[in-house]
Specification:
This protein has helices at 2-11, 17-38, 41-49, 61-84, 98-132, 142-148, 154-163, 171-194. The two termini are 38 Å apart. It has 195 residues and is mainly alpha-helical.
């Protein structure tokens, strides 16, 4: 959306007042409709996971921060679920009396806290490291990038397979412009009926 907004502003230097009014209304309409799309979890995560866009696909810094929080949260959940499926070593040689049951409860609680903290820390590190990398050029293939980086960012790679099925760049624009096209077609039909 940010790229579209910039392109429209650059092209609108020498236009008539009627065209300027039409452009302002179009931009306002696009901003209103894209604002709701910008809060959809799948679209924001897909935009961040597209190494050509990352944070460049958002209009405001607040939306970027919200999307990054969402990505970190999704990544934390993925890490926690994958760690939960791993077997945990148990202390050998413990007796089964009441005092050892108390120690087992304490050990389990500590393990859960440690696991939760590690998952969050790992997610933050992986996401931040990915976001500071230089964006890919527009013509480069994001799926090829993720295939090459699957050992560097294993959890984000897994998430990219799930989220990049919805193109970060075309879905919001296509939706807005198809609505705009229907609206202008309706106005044209109404205008033709008046004549």
């Amino acid at each position: 959306m940010n790229i579209l907004h910039h392109a429209v502003l650059v092209k609108s230097v020498n236009i008539t007042s009627v065209a300027k009014l039409l452009l302002d209304n179009l931009l306002r309409h696009v901003r209103e409709h894209v604002a709701s799309i910008g809060s959809l979890s799948t679209m924001t995560v897909a935009t961040l996971l597209d190494p050509r866009f990352k944070t460049l696909g958002f209009l405001s810094r607040n939306k970027v921060q919200e999307a990054v929080r969402r990505l970190k949260s999704e990544c934390t959940a993925l890490i926690a679920s994958s760690e939960a499926s791993l077997p945990h070593p148990s202390d050998a040689g413990e007796s089964t009396n009441n005092s050892s049951e108390l120690w087992c409860l304490l050990d389990e609680t500590v393990d859960q806290k440690r696991q939760s903290f590690n998952a969050t820390a790992d997610a933050i590190l992986e996401v931040e490291q990915y976001l500071v990398e230089v964006n890919l050029r527009r013509h480069q293939d994001p799926l090829e990038y993720w295939h090459k980086q699957k050992h560097v960012y294993p959890y984000l790679y897994h998430m990219s397979q799930r989220f990049l099925c919805s193109p970060a760049s075309s879905v919001p624009c296509k939706s807005v412009f198809s609505k705009a096209g229907r609206s202008s077609a309706n106005e044209e039909t109404a205008y033709n009926h008046k004549q």
